[in-house]
Design a protein that fits this description.
Elements lengths: L2 H25 L4 H20 L9 H12 L1
Helix pairs in contact: 1-2, 1-3
Length: about 70
């Protein structure tokens, strides 16, 4: 797996876990699973940034999404 795929998966995973955290907090539960998911997503994004030569710029993230989705379509 390359760094672009790790970046995209990490961002998507983090985005999907935010509603889960909010739901757990409003129900009065501890968001244990959601917090673990956020940590995994953060690790994936950090790995992607460290393995990409030169790193990523904020403006290049939409291009990374398009490249990754184009590979699978």
């Amino acid at each position: 797996m390359d760094s672009d795929l790790f970046l995209v998966l990490g961002i998507i995973l983090a985005g999907f876990s935010i509603p889960s955290i909010l739901s757990a907090m409003t129900d009065g539960r501890a968001p244990r699973a959601s917090a673990l998911t956020i940590l995994i997503a953060g690790g994936m994004v950090l790995y992607a940034i460290q393995t990409q030569p030169g790193g990523y710029e904020l403006q290049s993230i939409p291009d990374v999404f398009v490249r990754v989705f184009a590979r699978f379509i």
